[in-house]
Write a structure and sequence with these properties.
The structure is a single chain. This protein is α+β, with helices and mostly antiparallel strands and 499 residues long. Helices cover 19% and strands 32% of the residues. The chain has a 7-stranded antiparallel β-sheet. The radius of gyration is 31 Å and the shape is elongated.
Length: 499
């Protein structure tokens, strides 16, 4: 390569000499990049070096040592006695991530998943924090909030430590420049830059309000800070979207507006408390909105109400659509769970909802959100196929209906077969056309349809009439309330077949 470059340089010099000799009016040529300096984008520095130099010392590397119990691979073999048959084996595991100091006395912010056990049955033995000057400290876990994936650590040093402070992420705009500092793939002190790609981005979590960025975020960046151009922390890098596991320009950071108050609570050694109404909700997507005759994403749909909780006492019912709480509209960017979570526990809040097309206002008392284990007991569970012993019916009959569903009246015998409450009223699905939306959404033989368009149905004819009413109103989906053994009744919008 050196030889090739030498020849190229010689040819260029030779060409220059010929040009100068043959045309005395042409000035001496210079390299294209001689004396060049790129103009900085408006509001951005020419270089990030000065800012990064000040910020880097506050960013730390976090590693954990864990013990994981695994099944003895020799159990049940001739070597079982030799290697301790029946005794679980313990292996060592590690995790790596990032964090940043928020005080001179050693408080550190990171993601909960950076310091949490990495597998079922694992325990974290130790957490080590490494500074940019390679000093290592044993860290204590002060507090964690799995719901928002945040954690606070504490280290003790003999001298004040460099730290950074939170900025105001509510002022962030799409297109603003941001800088991420962290330890991707254990490469400590790595700096990347980009812009804010989107705000209020959800990835499926209850409290998701992520800042999306195209700054390179990789494994090991988790828990590290995202800075604005003033050097303030406006986000905590938390997730990436990647089919390969590497950076593809889609990273997510927890905004400081959400993180800062939670971090302050954890720092005090307190647990995070959130408001709770006791309802199970679904987004008001296109099919569900169409089945109700409402604009999509204009609220959230109530699937179920927990007895004795605030929503139940306020008169909120399954099938309602909640559009605002305490004057704040329920939208895709600000979902119902996050609004309620931030309401004062014990306070009364006005809730605007839509029921059967009418707008109603109720007042509900906000309770305290239970633990995740308690919530799971209220959540729906799936069960195996029910109705194997149902009277068989030609699936071709189902294709004659707009829904692709063929159903039978409930009888005491069928109720016993399905294992559902004896007082259940509805019709049981005998066949579903798999090519229809009903089939695509998982309806199956043995499911019970309780209502259609919020009206009770006890025969196939009543279901057909409800479908015709929907078609007459120009809507393309119908709202069914479905009961499946072992589950709470749930509402499901089903799109009608095109004719």
């Amino acid at each position: 390569m050196r030889y090739a470059y030498a020849i190229t340089a010689a040819l260029l010099l030779g060409g220059t000499a010929i040009a100068v000799t043959s045309s005395p009016n042409v000035g001496a040529q210079v390299a294209q990049n001689e004396g060049m300096q790129a103009a900085a984008p408006a509001g951005a520095p020419v270089s990030l070096a000065d800012m990064v130099e000040k910020l880097q010392p506050a960013v730390v590397n976090i590693s954990t040592k864990q013990r994981v119990q695994v099944q003895n691979p020799f159990a049940g073999t001739p070597f079982g006695d030799l290697f301790g048959q029946g005794q679980p084996q313990t292996r060592q595991a590690q995790s790596l991530g990032s964090g940043f100091l928020i005080s001179a006395d050693g408080y550190i912010v990171t993601n909960n998943h950076v310091v949490a056990p990495g597998a079922q049955g694992a325990t974290v033995d130790s957490i080590t924090v490494t500074l940019t000057n390679r000093e290592e400290y044993e860290a204590k876990l002060v507090g964690r909030d799995p719901a928002t994936d945040l954690a606070v650590l504490k280290i003790t040093a003999k001298k004040p430590l460099p730290f950074v402070k939170f900025g105001d992420s509510t002022k962030a705009r799409v297109g603003d420049w941001v800088v991420a500092i962290g330890n991707p793939f254990a490469l400590s002190g790595t700096v990347t830059a980009g812009i804010i790609s989107a705000l209020h981005r959800g990835t499926g979590g209850t409290y998701d309000k992520f800042i999306q960025t195209d700054a390179s975020i990789n494994q090991g960046n988790s828990g590290g800070p995202m800075f604005d151009m003033r050097g303030n922390v406006i986000g905590i890098n938390s997730q990436i979207l990647s089919p390969s596991g590497g950076n593809v320009g889609i990273g997510f950071a927890i905004p400081s507006e959400q993180a800062a108050p939670i971090i302050e609570t954890l720092r005090k050694g307190e647990s995070v408390k959130r408001g709770y109404l006791g309802i199970q909700i679904s987004p008001l997507g296109e099919d569900l909105a169409d089945s109700l005759g409402l604009p999509k994403n204009s609220g959230e749909f109530v699937q179920g109400v927990e007895p004795g909780k605030g929503a139940d006492k306020a008169g909120i019912k399954a099938g309602d659509v909640i559009v605002s709480v305490s004057g704040r509209n329920v939208t895709v960017d600000e979902n119902l769970s996050s609004i309620v979570a931030n309401q004062p526990i014990g306070g009364s809040v006005p809730i605007v909802l839509i029921r059967n097309g009418k707008r109603i206002t109720v007042n509900a008392t906000v309770g305290e959100r239970p633990s995740e284990d308690e919530l799971n007991s209220f959540a729906q569970t799936q069960d195996g196929d029910d109705g194997d012993n149902l009277q068989q019916q030609n699936p071709g009959d189902a294709t004659k209906q707009s829904l692709g569903i063929s159903a039978l009246p409930l009888t005491p015998t069928i109720i016993r077969q399905l294992g559902i409450p004896a007082d259940t009223r509805g019709i049981v699905i005998a066949a579903v056309d798999p090519s229809t939306d009903a089939g695509a959404k998982g309806l199956r033989r043995g499911d019970v349809i309780l209502t259609a368009n919020n009206q009770p149905v006890t025969t196939q004819a009543e279901l057909d009439r409800a479908v015709k009413q929907v078609e007459a109103q120009g809507r393309t989906a119908i709202l069914l309330q479905i009961l499946r053994r072992g589950s709470q009744p749930a509402y499901l919008p089903v799109r009608l077949r095109d004719k």
